[in-house]
Amino acid sequence: MHGLVAFCVTVATIAAGPGQKGEFQWFKGNLHTHTWWSDGDSPPETVIAWYKNNGYQFLALTDHNQINVGNKWVSPDKNKKSSAAAAGAEYAKQYGPRWVETKPESQEPGAATLWRAKPLSEVRALFEEAGKFLLIPGDEISIAHGTIPVHLNGFNLLEAVPNEQADTVTGTLQKAIDDVMTQSQSTGTKMLVQINHPNFKWALTAEDIFPTRGAALMEVANGHNGVNNAGDREHPSVEHIWDVVLTKRLGELNMPILYGTATDDAHFFGPGADATRAIAGRGWVMVRARYLTPEHVLRALEQGDFYASSGVTLDEVQFENNVLSLKIQPKPGVSYRTQFIGTLRGYDPKATPRTSDPEARLTMKYLSGL
Predict the structure, then answer these.
(1) Beta strand pairing call for 102-104 and 314-320
(2) Both ends of the chain: CA-CA distance in Å?
(3) CA 145 from centre of chain
(4) 29 and 287 Cβ atoms separated by less than 8 Å
(5) At 342, is the pLDDT very low, low, confident or very high (cuts 50, 70, 90)?
(6) What SS3 string covers the chain?
(7) Quick one: average pLDDT of 89-102?
(8) In whole angstroms, what is the distance from residue 43 CA to residue 49 CA?
(9) Which CA distances in Å does 202 have to 43, 153, 197, 206, 362?
């Protein structure tokens, strides 16, 4: 999906540029990444530094079933990711003993070293800058619905939500969404939900997703190597699934748009991490907002004032008088082709199963060509 741009823009003219304080401007961000707090190979400081040093203005840390709060000790030497031990050594070298905290796992000779994974409240001081770089708390709510992995990101949470399954996959998605929205309403804090990588282990079909209410976002491009963005002979691509979801929601159910995002889902930042791994820089969102705060960023995402990309940068996006136009920021030696793809009015809503296997989890085949 190299070069993908997913347009998610409300009726507005969006011009690139830094802007003045209080004026709309672009902010580049990543909405999905992992650290020592779950299954990433590196400490939060290493992960955050990569994004800040590579031109991002905001980052959501989305470790599995937690929001990087409290006290956590990890053993990189025992991490299943081969780069984790090297990541620890590099971390110690870069930040030094005044910052890095370690202790032996036990009093036994040769015991493994435990490293303290710093909570978000501590690492903020090293990286955040008003108007320049922002950290947003996140939680990849990871639920096993039987053998089906149901994953969603909750943004700006104050506490992790339960990872509980319901009777159906759709019900499991809805339960997690409702838990985030309940926390948002009870605390008066702006929060948002993103449905993650539908084709990861072929977990989610379009029919699982489109009836859900309350989520604002869905990953259309995810940079992890094992999420099957393009589908296969049996399974449609994630872009295809998104098209079905949008068509059903807008054309039949009178439901809101589920906006498409691009993310890294990065796990590898340590020495030796290469393109065969889930590394950073593969997908991002460009958000249009007046201020770089969690509320302004999440509100822009919720309203569709952003675009998602895996390689293309836009100078301008315009939607006026029912005409959508754009201007691509060119790169030397690169040619561009722009396609606007979607289902037209008057489509045939009838659908048939793609297989006779009742256990197969495949998005239906729609007679309209979806």
Answers:
(1) unpaired
(2) 19
(3) 21
(4) yes
(5) confident
(6) CCCCEEEECCCCEEECCCCCCCCCEEEEEECCECCCCCCCCCCHHHHHHHHHHCCCCEEEECCECCCCCCCEEECHHHCCCCCHHHHHHHHHHHHCCCCCCEEECCCCCCCCEEEEECCHHHHHHHHCECCCEEEEEEEEEEEEECCEEEEEEEECCCCCCCCCCCCCHHHHHHHHHHHHHHHHHHHCCCCEEEECCCCHHHCCCHHHHCCCCCCCEEEEEECCCCCCCCCCCCCCCHHHHHHHHHHHHHHCCCCCCCEEEEECCECCCCCCCCCCCCCCCCCEEEEEECCCCHHHHHHHHHHCCEEEECCCCEEEEEEECCEEEEEECCCCCCCCCCCCCCCCCCCCCCEECCCCCCCCCCCCEECCCC
(7) 95
(8) 10
(9) 30, 18, 9, 11, 8
Residue 174's CB is within 10 A of a number of other CB atoms, namely 17
Radius of gyration of the chain (CA): 21
Reading the block at residue 189, the tokens are: 């804090």
Measured between alpha carbons, how far is 278 from 270 in angstroms, rounded to an integer?
11
In single-letter form, the type of residue at position 285 comes to V
Cα gap 78→111, rounded to integer Å:
11
Residue listed under structure tokens 């995810």: 222
Q: How confident is the model at residue 355 (pLDDT cuts 50, 70, 90)?
A: confident
- Residue 5, pLDDT score: 61
In one letter, which amino acid is 55?
Answer: G
Q: Which CATH number fits domain 5-68+120-366: 3.40.50.1820, 3.20.20.140, 3.30.360.10, 3.30.70.560?
A: 3.20.20.140
Alpha-carbon distance of 49 to 323, in angstroms, equals 40
Which of 263, 266, 261, 220 is closest to 242 using CA atoms?
220
Answer yes or no: pTM beyond 0.85.
yes
Q: How far is CA 300 from CA 49, 191, 236, 283, 289, in A?
A: 25, 12, 29, 18, 6
- Range among 17-26, 177-186, 272-281, 339-348 with highest mean pLDDT value: 177-186
